[in-house]
Amino acid sequence: MGFPSALPDETLYSRLIRYQMLTGLNPETLAINFFGRKRVSIHPFLTIGANRVAELAKEDVNSILKNQTLGHFFAFFLPKYKKQIFSKLLQDDAAAAFRACQLSNFKNNEPPLIKYCPDCAKEDIQNHGVSYWHLFHQIPGIDTCPHHSLNLIKVNCSENRTFPAYFLPDPSQKSEVSSYESSEFAGYVKTYFARILSTESYSIESLKERIRHSGYGLGNSRFQTGRLCKDLHLFSQCLNNTSASLLISSPMEVRYLFFLLKGGVSQHPIKYLLLEFLLSRVIVHSEPVIKVRNEAKSIAEENIEEKCVKLLNKGLSLSEISKITGKSRCYLRGLAYKRNIELESRPKKVTPEYRAIILMFAARGFHRKCIAEHLCISTGSVEQVISSVPELVTRRKRMKYESKRRRYKLQILRSVEANPQAIKQDIRNACPNAFYWLYRNEKEWLNKTMPLALKPSPPRKMQLK
Looking at 329-385, which runs of residues are DSSP E strands? Predict the structure, then answer.
């Protein structure tokens, strides 16, 4: 009986299992026929036996290793171990190939796992008559199916290492929906994985160049590592089921990027892909910071806002709308002010006439407390009316900025006049808040106002008598 041909994106591991099912032979007999020994360990994505399969199926052994195992994937990101990886796979030495891929050095203490998507398994049965293990699903760190946005089901295959028998995905299992970011990242990796097959090796220098073009560069040799770590950490928090050992643990973990960009230090491929995906999002959106918010969630928020507007126009009370939509009364009242919708539940004193008076006083620069006292209403009611007009909010922010600028400048001037002999450090210690705020926003004025730097005088030499 001939060896079964490979199905789309099928692993060599899966083909061996289907061959065992077609022949009906027990695992020990097949192990002796394939490898000449009864006990043999077969890895789910670094599968040995390519020579024997190529002989039976009359296929190219290099094509089998490249397209049906993850040997080429690890060789791409670890170019100095490339020859060792392929030579050990061709020698049917699974343990040595595992070590050559540096998997034992990536702090991954999980047992051997094999992953699948139940929806993909159902489609495989409909299209090919059998479910099988997909190669892309086996990439370490990828735990989401990009086609169905489902979390991949993980199966411990440590008990099926010796030529597995009848071990194929179970389509009856249920899986949870993954986060939007996990699905987007899996889709990006799938596209990147297809490009790897026609590329020699990964280039750290090209990665550094992309970082500079994305707005994280500081000259030719430095990077804004703090901002890059913060953005990478924000995105990592949205990946719901990726192993924590592969993600950056905090926005201050600079060494995570240091080892990635240093070169010569073996790093897990998924770390490079996380950084590549971050840079691709920055380039596409032309933004210095990646948008890690769920886009589907923002669309849902817009739909809820429109629903609230419709209910407000129908004249329902704020309590009824709050129960239907789950939004607070303050949110609904502010939305009504923005859309100029009359509210039945509005306090009697805040009438349209009062609202017009509040906006008039606010436009003339009166403080909200003064307006509230004049109209005998609460400060919160005045604040809510003012906040519904974006122009007034912008103007108030500008006035607050100008007030703080004048106040801090006065503090510095008084401190300099009160201490004529003081140096810059003394002024900074006397009013630190004013100094640092002006240093960020009014640096030129601050440098002109601060005392001039004194020329240091060397100590006098001692004369020997």
Answer: none
What are the tens digits of pLDDT across the range 188-204? Answer: 899 888 888 777 788 88
Inter-residue contact 97 to 48 (CB < 8 Å) = yes
Do 168 and 253 sit in the same domain of this protein? Answer: no
Query: Can you give the pLDDT at residue 108?
Result: 55
Residue with token string 């440590």: 158
To 10 degrees, the CA torsion angle through 194, 195, 201, 205? -130
Q: Are 131 and 233 found together in one domain?
A: no
| β-pair type (217-218, 153-156) | unpaired
Strand duo 150-151 + 144-145: pairing:
antiparallel
The pTM of the full predicted model, rounded to 2 decimals, is 0.58
Tell me whether residue 71 is in a domain. yes
pLDDT in the model for residue 376: 80
Phi, psi of 374 (to 5 degrees): -65, -40
Q: How far apart are CA 6 and CA 4, in angstroms?
A: 7
Name the β-bridge partners of 156: 113
The Cα diameter of the chain in Å comes to 108
Contact, 329 vs 384, CB < 8 A? Answer: no
Strands 150-151 and 153-156: unpaired
Phi-psi group of 299: left, alpha or beta (phi > 0 → left; psi -120 to 50 → alpha; rest → beta): alpha
Same domain assignment for residues 21 and 163: yes
Could you tell me if 21 and 148 lie in one domain? yes
CA atoms within 13 A on the CB side of 407: 9
Is 334 domain-assigned? no
**Residue 285 to residue 287: CA distance in whole angstroms:** 5
Parent domain of 60: 12-180
Q: Is 302 a member of any domain? A: no
Element (H, E) at 280: helix 269-285
d(CA 176, CA 250): 27
pLDDT tens-digit readout, 412-435: 999 999 888 888 888 888 999 999
Structural domain includes residue 423: yes
Neighbours of 294 (CB within 10 A): 15
* Residue 175 and residue 245 in one domain: no
Q: What residues contact 279, with CB distance under 8 A and at least 6 apart?
A: 210, 211, 214
Q: Specify the 3-state DSSP secondary structure of 218.
A: strand
Query: What is 346-358 written as a DSSP string?
Result: S-TTS-HHHHHHH
pLDDT digits (tens, 9 = 90+) for 87-128: 988 888 888 888 888 887 765 556 678 999 999 999 999 999
